[in-house]
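Researcher: Sequence recovery benchmark, item below. Answer with residues only.
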């Protein structure tokens, strides 16, 4: 396994040292192979909003597995969860399930291009949308130049149709529409940035993108792989009252199993095969075990007060941390939207990719390792979101 990990963010490259090998999780806790117990604020990078091994989720998975793990044919469970997604999002009338967030965003781009007949896309520097070629441009790294691939193996011809905007700056997107008024298929954005650390959208940012895309007959894609069912039941679209044209989902809708999804209006989704000419497929897509985990998760998230309680819990954690840092006279900026937040070692406001990069990374690395010694497992990077689950308590 390259680097000993199946996804590079697990490698602790940003904080130094060797990753924990985890053997077990229960509620808010995880245990490593040496038997150490930690409070877990990674929560599998977002999916585990109910914590580890939630009883109903495990029961649903067990039942689904006993019923047969995969058929490659339509099943009731995938229709049940499709209905839950359609009910949660005003902008979604049809949804297609895939196996990861990467597949969801990759397919959403293809759909936007197929529907509009245009080739260019706009993404934001510091925005991560999975590892498909067109989206691996300024994906959370320092490459600020226009259309320069972030990864070896992504050719310039793939990257040249990817235009870069500046998060929280609608004028940067307007400039692209001025330059290419008829060529931009879509603007794809994390409505709350999560992959440069949590950066909430300015008041006018999302509305600005909505207005610009409408004006130019382009599509607005919200990548809600993190924010979907996280910042509200109906994601960022419910929280900020703005509807996207295409929504990408993942993480929470799979309840800890591998899932992604993309959804839109019935008209736009009619472009997708077998209804339309845009091809997209998957042997294990809509997998019954994954669908069962997702259904059991969403059902629990429908209970009244869940999101208020989650937000309050995260707020009290943030307030406590802020107090401790103030006492120690260490500058700390906490950006939080509901139960996702990032501790930036930064004296100033963090509201853009540029201000994110002004944070003290080494300081964070030291803090990460000291917290680990105290039995708290944080995301091993200064620019990732930490997540609070319903299983976390006020106990230390
Ligand atoms: N979009 C966003 C906003 C993400 O945070 C991620 C993964 N962290 C992805 C897409 C890709 O999802 P996956 O890792 O499931 O391919």
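Model:
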């Amino acid at each position: 396994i390259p680097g000993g990990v199946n996804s590079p963010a697990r490698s602790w490259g940003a904080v130094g040292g060797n990753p924990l090998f985890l053997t077990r999780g229960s509620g808010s806790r995880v245990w490593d192979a040496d038997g150490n117990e930690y409070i877990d604020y990674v929560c599998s990078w977002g999916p585990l909003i109910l914590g580890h091994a939630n009883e109903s989720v495990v029961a649903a998975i067990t039942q689904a597995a006993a019923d047969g793990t995969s058929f490659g044919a339509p099943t009731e469970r995938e229709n049940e969860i499709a209905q839950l997604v359609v009910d949660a999002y005003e902008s979604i009338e049809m949804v297609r399930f895939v196996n990861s967030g990467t597949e969801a965003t990759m397919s959403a781009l293809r759909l936007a291009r197929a529907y509009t007949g245009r080739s260019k896309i706009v993404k934001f520097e510091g925005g991560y949308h999975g590892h498909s070629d067109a989206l691996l441009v300024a994906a959370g790294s320092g490459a600020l130049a226009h259309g320069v691939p972030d990864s070896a193996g992504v050719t310039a011809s793939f990257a040249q149709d990817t235009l870069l905007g500046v998060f929280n700056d609608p004028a940067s997107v307007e400039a692209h529409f001025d330059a290419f008024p008829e060529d931009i298929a879509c603007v794809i954005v994390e409505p709350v940035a999560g992959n440069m650390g949590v950066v909430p959208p300015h008041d006018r940012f999302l509305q600005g993108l909505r207005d610009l895309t409408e004006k130019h007959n382009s599509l607005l894609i919200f990548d809600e792989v993190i924010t979907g069912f996280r910042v509200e039941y109906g994601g960022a679209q419910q929280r900020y009252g703005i509807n996207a044209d295409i929504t990408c989902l993942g993480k929470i809708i799979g309840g800890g199993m591998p899932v992604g999804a993309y959804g839109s209006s019935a008209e736009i989704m009619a472009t997708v095969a077998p209804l339309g000419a845009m091809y997209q497929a998957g042997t294990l897509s809509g997998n019954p075990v994954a669908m069962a985990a997702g259904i059991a998760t969403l059902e629990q998230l429908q209970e009244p007060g869940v999101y208020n309680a989650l937000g309050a819990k995260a707020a009290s954690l943030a307030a406590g941390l802020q107090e401790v840092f103030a006492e120690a006279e260490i500058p700390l900026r906490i950006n939080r939207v509901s139960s996702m937040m990032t501790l930036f070692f930064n004296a100033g406001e963090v509201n853009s990719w540029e201000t994110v990069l002004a944070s003290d990374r080494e300081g964070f690395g030291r803090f990460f390792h000291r917290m680990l010694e105290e039995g708290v497992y944080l995301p091993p990077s200064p620019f990732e979101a930490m997540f609070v689950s319903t299983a976390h308590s006020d106990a230390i």
